[in-house]
Amino acid sequence: METEEELHQPFLSSTHDDRSSHATDSRLEEVLSDTTVPFSKRLLSATWIELKLLFPLAGPAIIVYVINNLMSFVTRAFAGHLGNLELAAANLGNSGIQLLAYGLMLGMGSAVETLCGQAYGANKHEMLGVYMQRAIIVLVVTGIPLTVAYIFCEPILLLLGEPPELASVAKVFVYGLIPQIYAYAVNFPIQKFLQAQSVVAPSTYISGATLLLHVLLSWVVVYWLKIGLIGSSLTLSLSWWIIVVAQFLYIVLAPRFKRTWTGLSIEALSGLWAFVKLSAASAVMLCLETWYFQVLVLITGLLDNPQLSLDSIAVCMSIAGLMLNISIGFNAAVSVRVSNELGAGHPKSAAFSVIVVNMISFIISVIEAVLVLALRRVLSYAFTDGETVANAVSDLCPYLAVTLILNGIQPVLSGVAVGCGWQATVAYVNVGCYYLIGVPLGCILGFNFGLGVQGIWSGMIGGTMLQTLILLWITLRTDWDKEVSTTKERLEKWDHKKQAKVES
């Protein structure tokens, strides 16, 4: 029987270089299973162990996502110094074109998060490198049609009703982002490969250093070399490639990955179709979530005299987007925790991790909502000096507060889905709740009942709430012992393909 002090020493505190020597720690499962210890003591010990595992994952992940957003923000800020037209073009290229590729690639990359996390938990270390390479191949191929879309972005933007002059300038900005597509294709599998092994701090350091370099390079390109708008977007692409190369070199050179990265493997070419299907389900799941609130903005633009509504909702969406990075960090953390524990055959630990992460994220989201309501009269002044906009933002803050609370739960439940491999199920749930219920309900309330942006947002909140309740119901009804068996079968299936390829 371990002492209380030993129980409070999580495996992440190990400084041994070969972190792959053990995929996950069994102490949490042992604590939860030991009925000889009083329940309150077991709960306290288990919570302490889980928190010590959780925050070293969630904290750096949150920082990485914030830094990624800041790089795009810096690029648009420098574009703004070229002129108002260039700023509008950069914003249009970012929100209209770049986010499509980002959401698609990140979504497809979450497939490797499921497989790598479960394989690492099951001590199938050599498969992590194979899964990562398979993901890179699939994402690079996916980048080809995206490249075509980037090339023909001007007619696409014109078809969407954008002004010809703006679409023409936005085209220049988007052309410079074409190399970024393939940086995404390599980066996200590498990122998930690292996260599956609870190695997240190095990515934070690399991203932070690259952000500083990106600011310097953007200044040189825009002010010194005077390359203009395409120079600013090419600089963003270059910065993403710097992150990719630095992370890959870290994997190749660090001794801790000697079991999970064994070099390029021909096995990466096997089982690609099965990987494509899992990746497609992951992409649909994430993209439907990413686009949902973009649809809110687009519908708001159809209101009579939409300028004030768009200004106020832009402020609220900026705040929601900033806060969402916290939930996305917990999304990544719970995905790693659940997949690792399932792969290791620890059903109680997986279930307990889901409970703890949801509670922590929910508490943080409630604090965010309270702050938003307390500061509702002054929030908009961080973005604009207009009193009219400030009053409109104040009216929308209750809707923003509810959205923040839902965003504290829903992304975590989506992370559980990724950890378990439920992406296809969640994709169907998202289609029904978001686009068959949320969007139509918002349009009815906003236009038919004359409630404007409040009605549109209310409908969208209804869709999100229904989706959250369904995911919560699915999670609460989960048989975690069965999930362990399913994970074992999935890993044996993929390993079987690997062995069959070797034998042939």
TrEMBL record:
It comes from the Eukaryota. The chain crosses the membrane at residues 53-79, 99-123, 135-160, 172-190, 202-225, 237-257, 269-292, 312-334, 355-379, 399-420, 427-449, 455-476. One of its GO terms (biological process) is xenobiotic detoxification by transmembrane export across the plasma membrane. Its main location: membrane. Keywords: Membrane, Transmembrane, Transmembrane helix. Residues 1-26 are annotated as: Disordered. Pfam families: MatE. It is a multi-pass membrane protein. Residues 15-26 have a biased composition (Basic and acidic residues). GO terms for molecular function: antiporter activity; xenobiotic transmembrane transporter activity. It is found in: Membrane. GO terms for cellular component: membrane. InterPro entries: MATE_euk, MATE_fam. Belongs to the multi antimicrobial extrusion (MATE) (TC 2.A.66.1) family. PANTHER family: MULTIDRUG RESISTANCE PROTEIN (PTHR11206). NCBIfam families: matE. This is Protein DETOXIFICATION. It comes from Vigna radiata var. radiata (Mung bean).
